[in-house]
Amino acid sequence: MMINTWHNVNQNMLNDVYDFDTGADVNKKESVVNLLGSRTGTLVSAYLLLALGFLGLAWVPVKAGNMRAILLLGCAVISGYIYQCPPFRLSYKGLGEPLCFAVFGPFATTAFYLLQGSTREVIHLPFTAPILSASLLIGVATALILFCSHFHQIEGDRAVGKMSLLVRLGTKRGSGVVKLTVIGLYVLTFSFGLSSALPLTCIFLCGLTLPIARLVVSFVKENHNDKHKIFMAKYYCVRLHSLFGTALAAGLVVSRMFPKLGLPSTFGFS
């Protein structure tokens, strides 16, 4: 949890610094640089967090005796860096969402799973269908937050050459992408459940989050062209991410406590 929080904070700070440099965040009130009033202070703090985070990344997997985890977490950090930082800045080429999906989905979620066992047990934890399925769902939900955070920034992004997916698509088609992504999230969940990649408890509990998912879709559809109202879209996506992730985790826990409810035998826990 601490490492995940660190990575989020560090990534946002670096993102705000380099968007400030290009002028993309001139009118972004919630930018860390604008809030602190210091570009240098934010940059120094971000790199200090990066250094401390690497120490944590090295210590936790070594302590657990699992090098696969540190490789996955290392991939997450590197992907996060090339997402925004020079000379790469792949977010300016429309690759922000795919990178976000990989960082917080397959890389980070799978790595955190590998760190859950004891020093002896964790080495033998396999990459199972439930873990990989859950990581894909978390990746999709996280990438949706990033996608929706750009609706109110399209004009500023285009002006500085930041060709995000929304700049390329426009708000109307972007709202359609949001709808398809949300539908895809639940279709994947249902499919994983039917194929026994995830327990049936996950289908049931994740299904309870459909109201907030419908709210996200309807809100974006109605307000995609209003840059003042659409600002709230990313916060609705954060709510969806939190509720969906909690429901997914709860479904896995409940199915382990009550195996007859449909936990796949390949889950990987003894």
Write out key terms for the chains shown.
globular, 270 residues, 72% helix, Four Helix Bundle (Hemerythrin (Met), subunit A), disordered C terminus, mainly alpha, 13 helices
In short:
It comes from Pyrus ussuriensis x Pyrus communis. This protein is mainly α and 270 residues long.
**In CATH's first tier, which class of the largest domain applies?**
Mainly Alpha
The second-level CATH architecture of the largest domain is Up-down Bundle
Mean pLDDT across all amino acids: 84
Q: How many domain units? A: 2
**Whole-Å distance between the termini?**
23 Å
Nearest-angstrom radius of gyration? 19 Å
Based on helices, strands and strand pairing, what is the structural class?
mainly alpha
DSSP helix count?
Answer: 13
Shape: globular
Query: Which spans have pLDDT < 50 for at least 5 consecutive residues?
Result: 265-270
Organism: Pyrus ussuriensis x Pyrus communis
Keywords: Membrane, Transferase, Transmembrane, Transmembrane helix
GO molecular function, one term: prenyltransferase activity
InterPro entries: UbiA_prenyltransferase, UBIAD1
Task: Write up this protein.
The protein is an all-alpha fold and 270 residues long. It has 2 domains: 1-125, no CATH class; 126-270, Four Helix Bundle (Hemerythrin (Met), subunit A) (Up-down Bundle). The chain is built from 13 helices and no strands. It has helices spanning 2-22, 32-36, 39-64, 67-84, 96-114, 119-122, 129-148, 154-159, 165-169, 171-194, 200-207, 210-223, 233-257. Helix 5 (96-114) runs antiparallel to helix 7 (129-148), helix 7 runs antiparallel to helix 10 and helix 10 (171-194) packs antiparallel against helix 11.
